Structure formats: C-alpha cells, structure tokens
Amino acid sequence: MSTKPKDGTDIAAGLLFMAIAGFFAWQGLGLDMGTSTRMGPGYFPMVLSGLLFILGAVILFKAFGRPDDEPMGRIAWRGILFILPAPIFFGLTVRGLGFVPALFVTTLIASQASLRMRPLAALVLSVVVTIMSTLIFSYGLGLPFRRFGPWLPL
Amino acid sequence: MELLSNLALGFGVASSLTNLGFCLIGVLLGTLIGVLPGIGATATIAMLLPITFQLEPVSSLIMLAGIYYGAQYGGSTTAILINMPGESSSAVTAIDGYQMARQGRAGTALATAALGSFFAGSVATFLVALFAPPLTAVALKFGAAEYFSLMVMGLVMSVALAHGSVLKALAMVVLGLLLGMVGTDVYTGAPRFTMGITQFADGLNFVAVAVGVFGIAEILRNLENEHDRQVMTKNISRLFPNRDEFRQMVAPILRGTGIGSVLGILPGGGAILASFASYTVEKKLSKHPEEFGKGALAGVAGPESANNAGAQTSFIPLLTLGIPANPVMALMIGAMIIQGIVPGPNVVSEQPELFWGIIASMWIGNLMLVVLNLPLIGLWVKLLTVPYYVLFPIIMAMCSIGVYSVNSNTYDLFAVAGFGLLGYVLSKLRCEPAPLLLGFVLGPLLEENLRRAMILSRGDPTTFVTRPISATLLVLSLAILVLVFLPQIRKRRDEVFTESDA
C-alpha cells in the first residue's frame, strides 16, 4: 500500500468515464464524420466521446494527492443478485409463460433481495401482487398481454 | 380579457368528471409515492408513463402533473415525520420540520407545509398562465442556434445544481448525451451504437433508462443497509396552527413564493435551488436566527412554499419551449411525444385545451392536496410503517410491467437491468443521475439543432455568438460554469449541500 493519499472512488469514476468514452469512440469509428457544415452521423458523438475522455482523465488526475473523504460503503450484492435478474426474467418469459406466471416468478425473485423476507411472506406477497396487477393492468386497463402463454400445457 | 377566457377554457377542460378523476388519482398516487421514502417522483412517473398511453393526452398529462406536485407534497410529510426527505426538494424541510415534530409540533409543521404549498401553488399557477403565452411568442422567434444555446444553458444549470463534484456532473451530462445518440441518425438513417440490435434502432427506451437509473439504482442503495424507520407519529394532536403561528408564517410564505416562482423557471432544477435559497433568506432575515435548525416555523413555511412554487413554474419552459427544467419535466416531454404532441411553442396555439387544461388542473390539484391531505395525514403516517422489504418487490413488479408495456420490447427490460446496474455503480462513485437523464433527453435535440444551425450558417460556428439571444444564453452558461468552479462559491455550495444531507 502506498502512503500517498488518493481518492479511490474518483480514480474508479475517472477510469469508468474514460472506458465508456473509449467504447463510444471505437463504436463510432465506422460512422461518417462529414464536415462541420454538413455534420455526418459520427461527428457529434466523436466530439462527445473526446470530451468525456478528457473529463474522465481530469477526474482521475485530480484524485491523486487527496484522501478519499467518503469511502464507498457497503455494496448491495444480494440486491444486485436478485433485483437485476427480475426484469430480465420477466422479459424472457412474459411471451412464453404469459403475464400471470411470469409476473408471479418475477416478484418472487425480487422479494429474495431482502434478508428479512420470510419464504411464506414472499409467497403471499407475490400472489397478491400478481392478482392485483392482473386485475388492474390486464382486465382494468386492457393492456394486450396474454395471461397464460403457449409454454404452459393449458 | 384573453387571460380570463383562456383560464375559463382551461377550467372547463380540467373540471370534466374524467379529468377531475385523473387529477385526483395523480395527486393521491403522487402523495403516496412522495410519502414512501426510497422511491422518487421521477421513477414513479417513469413507471406510470406507459399506463397513460391509453388515456387522452390531456388526461394523461394532468395525471402526471398531479403525481409530480403530489410527490412534492408527500415528500415533506416524510421529511417532517422521519427526517428523511422523500424528495430531494424537501431536504430543507427536514431540518426544521423534524425538530418541530420532536417537540410535539408535528401537526403544526404539516399544516404549515400544506398551507404554504397551497398558497404558493395558487400564485405560481397564476404566474404560469400569465407568463407562458408571451414567452411563447418569444420562443417562436427562436432558431436552431438559440435552441442549441438554451439547451446548453439547461445542461449547465443541471450541473451547477448537482450534488458533489462539478467535474463528475459534467461527465454525467456528456455520458447522457452520448447515450441519447444511440439509435438511427435522423439525417442519414445510419444506425449508431446499436451493436447490431435492431430493437435499439429507435434509440434506448427513455422509460427504461429512467426507471433503471433512478428507480432500480435507488432500490439497490436502500438495500445496502436495511434498518427500521423511526416514525414521529405519537404527537400529531393539533393540526391547525394558532393565530400567533399564522402570523409567523405569512411573511416567509410570501417570500418563499416569490423566490420559488423566479427560480423555478430556470432550467436545471429550480425547485431544489428555490428551497435552499428560501431557507437561507429566512435565516438571514429572522429576528431569531438561532432558532433555525431547532424547529423554526419559518424554516418550514418558506422553503415549502418556495419548492412548490418552483415545481409549478418549472412548467413554463416545458410548455413554452419544450425544454425540460428537471428530470420530471423530461419525462413529461416523453409523455407528450408518445401522445403525438410536439412540445414547444406551438402547443399553446395548436392545443389550447391541453395547454390551459394542464394549467387549470394544477390549481385544482393543489386544492385537492390541501382538502384531502390534512384529514388523510393519519393514513399517510400508517403507510410509513410498511416495511421496505414489502415495498420493493411490488415496485419491481410495476417496473417490469410498465417498461414492457411501452413497446412490448423484451430488450427494454434488459436495458432496465443494465441501466439499473450502471446507475448503482455511478451512484457508488458519487455521481448524480439527474444530469445524465437530462443529457439523455436533450441529446438528440441538441445534436439536431447544432447540425441545423451549422447548415444554415454554411459551416460558420460564429452563428452561435453573433445572434444576440443565442450569445446571451451562452454567456450566461459560461458565467454559471465559471461561478461553480470559483473556490469561494464551491465552498459555499458544499456547505449548502452538506446542510441538506445532515
């Protein structure tokens, strides 16, 4: 460990911005730049990527020689693990399984993100949410969802 | 009087039974959302946006507007009772409001907030009606260069008002602009940054980005530390302030309304700035500045009026120029576009019912808030005791349904998860999401106007500084940027934000 103070959060932020800028610049290479009179599709994105890269570099540069005044704190790993897959699962299954089962499982997955949620409570909550949502969105507002999809042997 | 006939038209539209109903639903939903900490108005409106497609344009915008100011109102209830602002603009209210609650004056604080908000809301609504049409006339003279410069100013303002590092906020704006570039280029039809995914040809779904960056990132942050909330419920005995307290609140409410109305018009998040400014003014003018931070009535009355007035007048740039003053207004633009209305100066002449209907509904909505919420405070307080782990699975279910129903596009749901992760990572790196969303909405408009201006001027970039309005706007943006980088101002800004975090 070096003894010089540095702001770890800002180092990460600077690097992240620079990486994103690099990605956009790389993706934008194939686009026509045009001239400044008639800008092509690649012109403005390239300017923005350059700007973001410079900003990222400055953030990174300024992070050295200064202590991290506010450390990052805890990371919600359990949250990431269960919250993020919930909409993905819904997206993958809403057509195949249909609205009702897909939503039920989605809610069940999301509810696992908290340590405090007991299994029975999660089950009850998911059932209630599914019934209410089906009544409101499918019957009430008439959104065009298939309630039960073709994957189910119904 | 043209104004009166216009307002009459507006009230005619807004007081139809359907629109009254949607206004009520919006206000109630907004209050509910505002009261519950951990889910903001931006995320809620983003989630409910798709549901409003089925409605008439007027009804849907009335309901969305209702959610917005209802949330402002509900946010202050939470700020006062559990010292946790439901909305960022009620952060200031928490300082003195919570202290009042601890002294057993929760009822008075809540009533003060309600009355102040109502008064400010009424005045500001009137101001919107008064000033929006003449500003529209000015806006019609705007060319591509002016629009470009105005948007630059809006983005710079959002940077100046973001918490923490100015550099990071700038980077967030640029990142937002870049994300706005995803999709088909309007001039040439070339696909950009879609990575071969045809579902992204129309650009990233705005609702997905907003729900991800605001809603999901916030849920993840709340899940870091699960702890119980302390609710100050025991002490709500007397709601109505006595004569003496009334006298104390009149001047702060008037000043707050003035400050809020002016600052709300500024693009970039006026309502938040307004409540800080009002608090500072009240503390300066007070005969007992030592009371501030220990339960001063003026510290609740002033900022609450200011933030409500600002929330109301922030509709002015939206309705006249089609430029959002804050992320919620950005969502309203999204809603208008989805309904087939092009936001901008033409709305008032082409859609007078819509324009005046929204304005009139704001006043009606504010009235509903006072009439309904003072008696309903007990109910809202009960809601605060619902544990968070019950709330967020419901929120996730609503998110999934809402985002999917926009275009029935599976990729939008993947985008929600992706932007949720990005939003969480960025918030861990202490980067504010508001500038990013504003950049994302304004990105395509900014590029289009830049390109158009350059074509019109035959490639001469001085067009932005030789046209007077455009030059003024750019000079103002530059001045703001210089100001926030000045060491003195920077220190002061840090203090203001630290105060709100405390």
Structural notes for this entry:
Chain A: It comes from Paracoccus subflavus. Chain A: The chain crosses the membrane at residues 12-31, 43-63, 122-145. Chain A: Residues 12-145 form the DUF1468 domain. The complex is a heterodimer of chains A (154) and B (502). By secondary structure, chain A is mainly α. Helices cover 60% and strands 0% of the residues of chain A. The mean pLDDT of chain A is 84. In chain A, helix 1 (8-27) runs antiparallel to helix 2, helix 4 runs antiparallel to helix 5 (99-111) and helix 5 (99-111) packs antiparallel against helix 6. Chain A has two domains: 8-63; 77-140, no CATH class. Chain B is an all-alpha fold. In chain B, 75% of the residues lie in helices and 1% in strands. Chain B contains 22 helices and two strands. Chain B has helices at residues 2-14, 17-35, 41-48, 57-82, 91-102, 106-140, 144-160, 166-180, 206-224, 243-265, 270-285, 298-313, 315-321, 327-338, 347-350, 352-384, 388-407, 410-428, 433-456, 463-466, 468-485, 487-501, and strands at 183-184, 191-192. In chain B, a hairpin with a 6-residue loop joins strand 1 (183-184) and strand 2 (191-192). The radius of gyration of chain B is 22 Å and the shape is globular. The mean pLDDT of chain B is 79. Classes of the chains: A mainly alpha (154), B mainly alpha (502). Chains A and B meet through helix 1, helix 2, helix 3, helix 4 and helix 5 of A and helix 8, helix 9, helix 17, helix 18 and helix 19 of B.
